[in-house]
Design goal:
Elements (H helix, E strand, L loop, with lengths): L2 H7 L15 H15 L4 E2 L12 H18 L4 H9 L9 H12 L8 E5 H13 L5 E7 L3 H9 L3 E8 L2 E2 L1 H13 L3 E7 L13 H13 L3 E5 L15 H4 L5 E6 L10 E5 L3 E3 L5 E3 H9 L8 H13 L4 H4 L1 H21 L2 H7 L2 E2 L7 E5 L6 H11 L1 E2 L1 E2 L12 E5 L5 H23 L1
Parallel strand pairs: 1-14, 3-4, 3-6, 6-7, 7-8
Antiparallel strand pairs: 2-9, 4-5, 8-9, 10-11, 12-13, 13-16, 15-16
Helix pairs in contact: 3-12, 6-7, 6-11, 8-9, 14-17, 16-17
Length: 445
């Protein structure tokens, strides 16, 4: 019997017998985008939100690792044997650089928490999974998400069978009053609004940011309504106009905010090191009290066990080298991303001037920073349109419909300018404008 015949004779696993999330389009979104990117390697891509690579040097990895080991031996007085164990063996579940992360957050964000409140994770995605698994205990527990929303958190909720309710986002991010309305409607439906997921600065995918008063108002609502806030802040450093705004966690006086973070955008994406700040107290039997971070550690011990010690050591060395001040260390990247976003906005205006975009029905927002903006177009910006754009015009983007839970975004596309050079952005916008003109004519016909 041939291999093909043998394979055909073996019964397949029915998809209906697998977890329902595997049929959810959200879980297909990233795979589809990666597949299109792989099939059109010469296309200029506004699709990925990955950081630029211009300043990465392979030799830096060795230097950062040495800086961390020097810290252990010379500053902490560890023996070579203890250092070897730290790097080569399974480590502390909550992480081995939690103290450096806490110090960096204090310097950069004015987030003052004990090192014991920090759990170092395998990327921010694990931080989301651990937090959702710990907080959502009852069938009626519901996650509110700013909509449009990053697919990583909605996908994680789907995997964990957590109900999600979208909160419409405005031009300045989630409207606190809309959050309050969603909280009350969720309760009226017999559900418990457990937490709100939000990216307050330059959100993925919209690029929207919350004002200072809106942040204060959101915290007031969270306190009054017994709502937790899951704050994800990967882009806050990268300001284009104005000054950095305080994180929700820095403003948090009632321990309502669980702060999710990552070094993917600000340090080394390949290290896959993230963290969660969970300083909330948990009361147990007999009056016993722990930190939420300790409870997250229990879950982590049954998933990834611990975060790679080598990856943590490299990131730890980078933090030490920067004096635990990543804002200063990111000065070149901040300037580069500012230039990229300025270039993208300028070229869109040049290639699609006001009179022409009015005629076409095209418009876009102008974020104050970050990696992303959203373009409204008169045609359906779906997978078929993306493939046409890649094949015939050599330019890639991301359909916005992937980021909505309620059927929105069908005539929108997301542009990310983080991984391109200014010259590539200029050429990419020229190709994009030609695609939009072509597709708009086809729609009108």
């Amino acid at each position: 019997m041939t291999d093909a015949a043998l394979a055909a004779s073996v019964p397949a696993l029915p998809l209906d017998d697998l977890h329902a999330s595997l049929t959810d389009p959200v879980l297909d979104a990233m795979n589809f985008l990666n597949e299109v990117v792989a099939r059109f390697p010469d296309a200029l891509s506004f699709a990925p939100g990955r950081p630029r690579e211009g300043d990465f040097q392979v030799a830096d990895l060795t230097r950062y690792l040495q800086r961390y080991t020097d810290h252990l031996e010379r500053e902490l007085g560890w023996s070579p044997d203890r250092v070897r164990t730290q790097l080569f063996q399974y480590g502390r579940t909550n992480g081995i650089i939690h103290d450096l992360v806490a110090r960096t957050l204090a310097n950069d964000e004015r987030i003052h928490v004990s090192a014991e409140a920090v759990v170092v994770t395998t990327g921010c995605q694990e931080a989301m999974l651990l937090t959702l698994r710990a907080l959502f205990a009852r069938p009626e527990d519901t996650l509110l998400v700013s909509s449009p929303c990053y697919v990583g958190v909605t996908g994680a909720a789907r995997l964990l069978d957590i109900a999600v309710r979208p909160v419409p986002e405005g031009p300045d991010g989630p409207d606190p009053d809309a959050v309050l309305t969603a909280v009350r409607r969720t309760r009226a439906a017999g559900k418990r609004p457990r937490a709100l997921y939000v990216v307050p600065d330059f959100a993925n995918p919209s690029g929207a940011s919350m004002s200072g008063p809106a942040r204060e108002r959101l915290l007031e609502i969270a306190e009054a309504e017994d709502l937790l806030i899951l704050e994800d802040d990967p882009y806050g450093f990268f300001v284009r106009t104005g000054s950095p705004r305080p994180t929700l966690k820095a403003l948090d006086r009632g321990r309502r905010v669980v702060h999710l973070g990552s070094f993917a955008k600000t340090a080394l994406p390949g290290a896959r090191v993230g963290y969660v700040v969970a300083d909330q107290e948990v009361s147990g039997p007999g009056g016993r009290r722990t930190l939420l971070a300790d409870e997250l550690s229990k879950i982590k011990s049954m998933t990834t066990v611990n975060t790679s010690a080598v990856s943590q050591a490299v990131v730890g060395g980078l933090l030490l080298e920067s004096g635990c001040r990543l804002r200063t260390a990111n000065a070149r990247s901040i300037a580069a991303y500012r230039t990229n976003l300025d270039t993208l906005l300028t070229e869109l205006d040049w290639c699609l001037p006001a009179e022409r975009r009015r005629a076409l029905g095209v418009r876009w927002n102008e974020p104050d920073g970050g990696f992303f903006l959203v373009l409204d177009v008169p045609f359906e910006a779906d997978g078929k349109a993306l493939e046409h754009s890649a094949r015939n015009f050599g330019v890639l983007w991301t359909p916005m419909s992937d980021f909505y839970l309620d059927g929105g975004g069908r005539h929108q596309l997301r542009l990310s300018c983080s991984a391109l050079t200014p010259r590539q952005i200029v050429e990419g916008v020229r190709r994009l404008a030609a695609f939009i003109e072509d597709r708009s004519r086809g729609t009108a016909a």
